[in-house]
Design goal:
Blueprint lengths: L1 H40 L10 H25 L8 H29 L5 H28 L2 H27 L1
């Protein structure tokens, strides 16, 4: 009977995780949106800096990525965290920067290729289209790669084998 309930509980856990990911993403979005527009309208205005919108988006997204790292690591995926914070961090930031590239590409196409140069157009390209595509990309890779419980379980199973193998090699070396 518990086997019948388990798929439902996995589904509920997935829904909770998506909701938590969304809440963390909303916080990151507020950071991104606020910083992007503040920079886009001031120091990185296209009238002053040709690549201003792209630079504003890089700065705002990096700050949002830091916000998201903390929220996802300590809340959304807290039960799936890897034991190696450095490795997990490198993977998280690699996925995040790839997601940022998706948003930057959307902004670049809209602003520089299609010629939509208003603040509204830049926000739609980067903070609606780019964000939606980047969010889907990031969630899938965070869930199934960065914070994947199956990767951690696989590592836990191979760790004793590796240490046993290295112990026997060491023992063989000391026996000489």
């Amino acid at each position: 009977m518990s086997g019948v309930l388990q798929p439902g509980s996995r589904w509920r856990r997935f829904i909770v995780q998506v909701a938590q990911f969304g809440a963390v993403g909303a916080a990151g979005f507020l950071v991104d949106l606020t910083v992007f527009n503040a920079l886009r309208l001031t120091v990185f205005a296209p009238e002053h800096v040709a690549a201003g919108p792209l630079l504003a988006k890089v700065v705002s997204t990096v700050l949002a990525i830091i916000t998201n790292w903390l929220g996802n690591r300590y809340w959304t995926f807290s039960k799936e965290r890897q034991s190696s914070t450095v490795r997990e961090g490198i993977e998280f930031f690699a996925v995040s920067f790839a997601g940022m590239a998706i948003g930057l590409f959307c902004l670049w196409v809209s602003h520089y290729v299609l010629g939509y140069k208003s603040v509204v157009a830049d926000n739609i390209a980067s903070n609606v289209v780019g964000l939606a595509l980047g969010t889907i990309f990031r969630f899938v890779l965070y869930r199934y790669w960065v914070f994947s419980p199956t990767r951690q379980a696989a590592r836990a199973q191979t760790a004793p084998t590796l240490s046993t193998g290295s112990t026997s090699v060491m023992d063989a070396g000391t026996a000489r």
